[in-house]
Amino acid sequence: MTYIAKPKFHHPGLRKNELGYTHRDYEGKISTLCAGCGHDSITASIIEACYELSIEPHRVAKISGIGCSSKTPDYFLGNSHGFNSVHGRMPSVLTGANLANRDLIYLGVSGDGDSASIGFGQFAHSIRRGVNMTYIVENNGVYGLTKGQFSATADRGSKSKKGVTNTDNAIDLVAIALQLGATFVARSFSGDKTQLVPLIAAAIRHKGASFIDVISPCIAFNNHAGSTKSFDYVREHNDAVNRLDVLVGREPISVDYAPGTVQVVEQHDGTRLALRKLDADYDPHDRLGAQTFLQKHAAKGQIVTGLLYVDPEAEDLHTHLDTVETPLNALDEKALCPGSAVLDKINASLR
Amino acid sequence: MKPTDISAPDYFHKVVDCQWACPAHTPVPEYIRLIAEGRYSDAYMINWKSNVFPGILGRTCDRPCEPACRRGRVEDNPVAICRLKRVAADFKDDISQRLPRPAAKNGKRIALVGGGPASLAVARDLAPLGYHCTVFDGDPKAGGMMRSQIPKFRLPDSVIDEETGYILGLGVEFKGGQRIDSLKQLLAENYDAIFVGSGAPRGRELDIPGRTFKHVAGKLIGVTFQKVKAEYDAKGRRNLVPSGEPDETVPCDDVLVAVGQENAFPWIEADCGIEFDKWHMPKVDPKTFVSTNPKVFFGGDAAFGPKNIIWAVAHGHDAALSIHKMISGEDINERPLPEVHVSSQKMGIHEWSYDNDISADKRFKVPHRDKVIALKDIRAEVELGYDVKLALGEAQRCLNCDVQTVFSAPLCIECDACVDICPMDCITFTENGEEDDLRQRLKAPSPHHDQALYVSGDLKTGRVMVKDEDVCLHCGLCAERCPTGAWDMQKYLIDMVHAGSTCQSKARSAA
Amino acid sequence: MSVQSPISSVNDFVVRFANVNGSGSASANELFARSILRHGVPVSPRNIFPSNIQGLPTWYEVRVTEDGHLGARGGVDMMVAMNPQTWDKDVASIEPGGYLFYDSTKPMPSSKFRDDITVIGVPLTAITNSTYSDPRQRQLFKNIIYLGALCALLDMDPKLVEQLIGEQYKGKEKLLSSNVHALHLGRDWALQNLKCPLGLRVRKADKVGDRIFIEGNSAAALGAVYGGATVCAWYPITPSSSVAEAFTSHCKKYRHDAETGKAKYAIVQGEDELASIGIVIGASWNGARAFTATSGPGISLMTEFIGLSYFAEIPAVIMNIQRAGPSTGMPTRTQQCDVIACAYASHGDTKHVLLFPEDPAEAFEFAAHAFDLAERLQTTIFLMLDLDIGMNHRLCRPLKWDDARQYDRGKVMTAEMLEEGRDFGRYLDVDGDGIPFRTYPGTHPTKGSYFTRGTSRDRYARYSEEGAVYADNMQRLVRKFETAQDMVPRPLQANAAKPTKYGVIYFGSTSPAMDEAIGILEARGHQLDRLRIRAFPFHSSVASFIADHDFVYVVEQNRDAQLRQLIVNENGIDPVRLVPILHYDGTPITARFIANSIGDHQDHLKVTPLRKAVS
Q1: pLDDT in tens, C300-312
Q2: pTM here?
Q3: CB distance A328–C455 less than 8 Å?
Q4: Taking burial as the number of CB atoms within 10 A of a residue's CB, which of A317, B41, B89, C241 is the most buried?
């Protein structure tokens, strides 16, 4: 880590977004994670995505559980409220926060211990409820803060730094998210920002449960030979099905693609996702197909990345609960309290 | 682009913008660190070795270093390098014991015409090597124009006395009140070499067409200026021509003319072997400072027209080296390479042997003497110089550009940690390409083409690391966040070659 | 063979129905209780039910009490024995001289009866089967038929019962008439075949007044509606589930936008109690009023989050409908056994605010107040009900709401205040009450954001492991808890008719039994001052009450005298001065129990003169 404050100076030629902010304005405190941690790259990608989308930083609520990954919300969007909650319980806290104010953007940051072990249940249930959120798992396959125990996403047969072979089957959070009805599912790699940044941006704009599994090598405990979450391994086995561009606003798609290689997906809010196909057969609207594709490739030892599934017509929990447009936290006595006249009637009915 | 050759001494030297811009290549960050540490005498001696007149220059230098200072590209103002130099002079202890001892004479005699900074710099370099140096000047005291032309409220005599004294104390013979009015005569005295550092002593003429003084009843009432504009000829030389706009009259009671000095060599006879060019300037080799007479060297304003003290000093060093080589029977055109030292600054996981916590302070103002006193006494120095606290604050603004970011491609695992942490978006990992193309693809725009791109060899993914040196803060965060030590912060010290330096054999590659 | 004359009592007796769970008896039994209320006679009913959906024994007890004693009395004057499985125990539990009402369709050997009671056999099944052919109808209407028979036997006014049925099936004419028909089938059979009425009779009175008849859980849920709760997250657990269910039905009625029809609330059934409290904390952190309802095991699961709420200072309201523990314990039986668990829930030094309502009316008030307290104090507020209040209809004063009342949203720094340049330190005590300001997420583009965490931090919410910084914060939390003392409902004191050295402290559902016991004790010559504690932290009047008396009985429904422990611990009281009176078999505490326990203790205290003892 670094203990000095990151200098406030920035490159004089930095671009500003629609709000007049540079990407530096989306930073938080300086990271206390180990040097080279993949999580810091994810942090940088979140910063970049929020900057690109011209999000007002204070309109984001960043919520996490406990663990290395869960520390990261302190390191981005310094003008946002953050909540480093309880181990494995980010999804419930986020769900509650989302219910209280549907107008904010909810960014849930979790890790593989947080989401695949202690919080596996909460992960699953927040997905199946369709909470409008961007749920990012910074997946390094290992418990970092407690020094290198396997996590539940560690692949069977992979080796720990101490040389122990993992004999338990791995949980693939992407497969679970697909099965539980997440309406935006992606996998990426902390070492590939070109892929990751647009995925995060698209997930933020998606109205529904967005889930991104980001393989994020742990430099300290899981970047050795025999690990399947190391920089080298992931780079060698990365099978990206598509590349994504997020287009906000009405501007035409100017990127020059070969015909037939681009699929444009329009989301609820008008955001368009331009998907450049890398695997001609992959259809990101086919939930079942995605599951099969994942399983087949996993069996071959490949890590499938990209936008794996998106439902542009997604609904969220507020839609299901049919809640009012005004955030619940903004309703006052007048809106909430039925008053004494109603109470008199209730009393009368109880005699 | 090809991988950057960081072993070329100039590559990192250019990154130290201030030092590169300084004619004497004074290692600025090095002495600023010493000032921050309170080691004023050490800071002074670095300066003394490099620019000979730290106390004088700390007040009067035209400081080419400051416009070059990286800090000025990062925020509003560069580091007050010049005034920090003065701090070293103001707060140093008695340094007389640290000066070279007058050496045993080697029997060689050098005549130095003019007692200004160029001649004194030559004497400073040669006297310790045993040369008998004789300085001639029409004025009774050494210092030349530093003494005669700079107002005392800006540069008090005491400072000039002290710093010229250090040189004369090396056993240099000073012949005050002896203006040389014949080079021929001097040549006849069989000096082993003659250095002409007689400056640009003549005030420029005032009779400039287009400028008229307006008098009414014999009383000056104003100046009328003709408006001109700049035009550039085919060679890119600037000419001022009338713009055609109406003249402008500025009412005034008096006119001060400050249009500079010019050279005058009435004392150099035509048959001395000294050739002059069409501007009546002696033909002087810009590298060796030798004239067309191999025994006669020029330096300072006398060489290439009016410049500043720091240039005079730089000329002096180079001329002294030429004189030394010439007398030693060496080829004066063979200029030895400066010595370069590179050393890692890493102390611990996040500790470096320099202060990498970048100060956000704005440039500190130098305190002035109370106006009432300053206006009453024209000899009272107006600028008081930084006090210790201000000096520390200003010193901490220095970005330590000599502590270089050194990248090792084989160690890099491309984790992006350096990219993510870099506050200035200097680092990009991308596919290689031609420079213009690469500059387009950097994380942040790269408008200053004079600032180098540091390009690595191919990495595992086939990409390269490109670092734009332009606005790097040298904060070392890239190296702190690097898990494999692929980045290191290494201090780059370049020892400029002066007369008598060791390792004078190798030919210098560039510059 | 003893000769026992049948009990004769008007408007003061206990009827107990022994049924099989899932037989549809509950609504008929409740109809019975309500019918008596319509006579102007107070009743106090109690559900005694198993942790089971179908087949296990269940009882419903109605205490008819013109004097208004709403606590359980103990003993049964009439047993309506509809469950062969519990027959023997049921018959045995009847008071001597009492009555046994049973379905005489099946012949029973005489050994199954007692000769000191009056046995009333009605061939319920035979009557039912001759009238109805559908098995489900047979089951349901059999219950109404025995209600009809009781109507005759107890001299109840059938018109009042019909009226109730009419209200219940308003708009469902077919159901209404068939129920009324069944009622008369039973009543007519009894009038024709039995000697009516019995010694136990209901007589019209005017003792109910404007009181209402409501379950504590429903009242608490209504309090949440009135208190402005918008988010409810819960996980089903007896006996708390009906809180969330009642909240749902109240919200459906009163919380939909008139124009859009959209919901001004969000109710989520969590996957467990951890998720439920997590949702509550997330919502409260984000400025909504949120609550969960649970019971002991749920509290155990929530404790990590409760610690977070305490330390990170996030409002939360937890309604704990207590049941008998530990572990799964007796999940359908009542106790006041989570006092310590809630007061000190979670690891580390923690303390929480507890509210102890005595009945549904207070459950309503305290529930609404809990949201003000939670936001004012920025911490978890426990509303401590128990099964006895929560799942039983209680007669209580009508619910009241002052329309001028405004919600106390606590110290919330707004964008305007931040803009004015107010110093915002999330954990900064600006005025000495220990309560800092908070901001809602999304308040201001550049000011007022902070990072909420369960780890130690300084006054400006910056992470810190400095001992002094940590201690400073912990001290402030103590200060805040002291502030809470004067905000929570104060204890209510009632003094004995004559000055006395003895006092009694009690709380929650013990209240009606205690009121009744005081009368009994007075009759036995024991004068006791009473103090009903209504909240923790304890108001200073608790300590002074104890100081003013030689001995103070602390009556509670748990084994370990948890309230007494809390008083001793928090006020540094000599334990000897607090005499525990403990009831913890899972049944509601009774006046008889309290009076006997205190009475016996008081008798021991009396120094009987030697001479008198000898004589």
Answers
A1: 999 999 999 999 9
A2: 0.90
A3: no
A4: B89
